[in-house]
Amino acid sequence: MAAAAVISLSGCEILNGLKGGGSTYVDKWANLVNETRYEASVNGNTLTYGNHTYTIVNDIDVETDEFKKATASVTFSNIPSGYTEFEAVYNGLLGKSIAGTAAMIPMAMEIYARNATTGEKCFNLLCNSSSTVDGIVRILKTKIVPSEYAPEDDQYIQRYMAAALLKGASNTNAYSPSKPYTVELTMSPNGVQDAPLTGGTVTYLYILASGGWDTFQRGVEIFLPYNGSQYKVFNCPSCYTQCKNIQGTWAGLE
């Protein structure tokens, strides 16, 4: 069989001439995905994993009546390198917090864009049900992963969508977020509601995106099982709806 030809795009490579005549898209940042294992260290509201840090600056106050102003924030130095780190961060710190769990949505989205198999595994950990995961992946596989039918220069493909949820990122600055990466959140007027059919409670909140959408409030629903201590993502469709098209070239996330 002839060697595969490589056509480079700014965000991925297309490997042509593979068995069966198909094409495999390799994300430009796929080499950042690895399962290197470190011991997670928690000090107060900060978790350290290797040289990556994750901090819950302020958690969601379920009694707040502020629905536009940021009342919670989570900062992190890097996107988790793979499922091993994602799981350690979720179990060690962020999954024990409403804000922390919500902040892991853009992390999982970015990991999915780098490697779909690893990203889906992260969503299976983060979300409360397989149907929630299926709904997210069904959109992401066509929205942020280029294909032979929708190449990267197709305006429908928005590889930068995860970055659009981070503080400081907007279409006018090529979705370059502030550092450390920050997810800002506040409560939704829907507050906290009992969900007996699913066996827990649902907290409704917003991720406050800087400039990726005309409506900056991106709705997120966070689930806590009765007598549970780890939160789960119940729903988050507005986090992966079409955002504003980028102006410039996206530099990627670390």
What does this structure look like?
The chain has 254 residues and is an alpha+beta fold. The chain has helices spanning 83-92, 98-114, 116-126, 130-143, and strands at residues 5-8, 12-16, 24-27, 41-43, 46-49, 52-58, 72-76, 181-195, 200-208, 217-225, 232-235. The protein has one domain. The strands form two sheets. The chain has an eight-stranded antiparallel sheet with strand order 4-5-6-7-8-9-10-11. A hairpin with an 8-residue loop joins β9 (200-208) and β10. It is globular. The protein starts with a strand and ends in a 19-residue tail after the last strand. Mean pLDDT is 89; it is low at 1-22.
How much of the sequence lies in strands comes to 25-35%
Point out poorly predicted stretches.
Answer: 1-22
Largest sheet: 8 strands, antiparallel
Shape: globular
Total of helices: 4
Q: Evaluate the radius of gyration.
A: 18 Å
Number of β-strand runs: 11
Q: Could you report the average pLDDT, rounded to the nearest whole number? A: 89
* Structural category: alpha+beta
Number of domains: 1
- Strand order, main sheet: write it out: 4-5-6-7-8-9-10-11
Distance between the termini: 37 Å
Helix content: 10-25%
Short summary of the structure?
With 254 residues, this protein is of the alpha+beta class. The chain contains 4 helices and 11 strands, in the order E-E-E-E-E-E-E-H-H-H-H-E-E-E-E. The protein has one domain (5-239).
Topology:
Blueprint (H helix, E strand, L loop, with lengths): L4 E4 L3 E5 L7 E4 L13 E3 L2 E4 L2 E7 L13 E5 L6 H10 L5 H17 L1 H11 L3 H14 L37 E15 L4 E9 L8 E9 L6 E4 L19
Helix pairs in contact: 1-3, 2-3, 3-4
